[in-house]
Design brief:
- By secondary structure, the chain is α+β, with helices and mostly antiparallel strands.
- It has four helices and four strands.
- Helix 2 links the parallel strand 1 and strand 2.
- Helix 1 packs across helix 2.
- The longest helix is centred in the C-terminal third of the chain and has 17 residues.
């Protein structure tokens, strides 16, 4: 298991004051704004004695490298960064050629990557 070395006081305070203080039933899971925040939050919860995913499940958003290498590996929503950059460039070039042209909304598919941070063994199921 990788050693947890986060020293972010904000996360310790958030994890230490918020999660234990929530009345039962406590939240089963948190979805964090990005993978770095999820990693720090998971680290803080572990420092407080909580186990991931047994006590609380955590997911992030970005698909950053840290999501693969943290312990346990983090469930994340991977963003299509190359496609985003391509779409932004194409939009910019379209605007340069036609500044009065209509705005365009573009939707790009993200991908849910399920990893151990959200996978609990199901209780009461026979093998």
């Amino acid at each position: 298991m990788a050693e947890c070395s986060c020293d972010c006081e904000t996360f310790r305070l958030t994890a230490g004051e918020t999660y234990p203080a929530v009345s039962d039933p406590r939240p089963d899971a948190f979805v964090c704004q990005n993978d770095a925040l999820a990693a720090d939050f998971a680290c803080s919860l572990r420092q407080l004695g909580y186990s991931i995913p047994e006590d609380v499940m955590i997911a992030g958003f970005d698909g950053m490298d840290i999501s693969r290498v943290m312990t346990p590996p983090l469930t994340t929503i991977r963003q299509p960064y190359a496609e985003i950059a391509r779409a932004v460039f194409e939009q910019l070039m379209r605007r340069v050629r036609n500044p009065a042209g209509p705005a365009q909304r573009i939707y790009l598919p993200e991908k849910l990557i399920v990893r151990a941070s959200t996978q609990r063994e199901r209780k009461g199921r026979s093998a």
